[in-house]
Amino acid sequence: GSWERLDTEFDHLLLDMKPYMLKHPNKTERQHCAVWIKKLCDPAACGSDRKNRNMYARVLLHMLKRGVLECPFTSKPEHGGLKTLPAYMSIYFEEPLSGLCGEQSNR
Prior knowledge:
By secondary structure, the chain is mostly helical. The protein has one domain (2-105). The protein contains five helices and no strands. The protein is globular, with a radius of gyration of 14 Å. Mean pLDDT is 85; it is low at 96-107.
C-alpha cells in the first residue's frame, strides 16, 4: 500500500541526507540534524502521518544540499509529536506538492 511506498521514500531520503550531513560545516547544526532525523525515525513522534514525516525529511535534505539550514532545523525539535509542516515550507520542494492546497481548505 501507500504506507510501504512512503516508508521506502523515507529510507531513500535518509540515505541521501547522510553524506550532506557528514560534510556540513557547522557542528552544532549537524547535531541538530541528527536529533531531527532521530525524531523523524521515531514512530511515537510521527504517529501514522508518514506523509508529513517525509515532507520534513525532504525539506531537511533540500537545505542540507544547499548547505544552509533554516527554521525549524536550526534548533532541536520540540518534545512531543511532530507538528504538521507549515504550508509555506512547500516552497522548498522542487516539484509542486499536489493536493497540499486542497487538503488545507477542507479542515
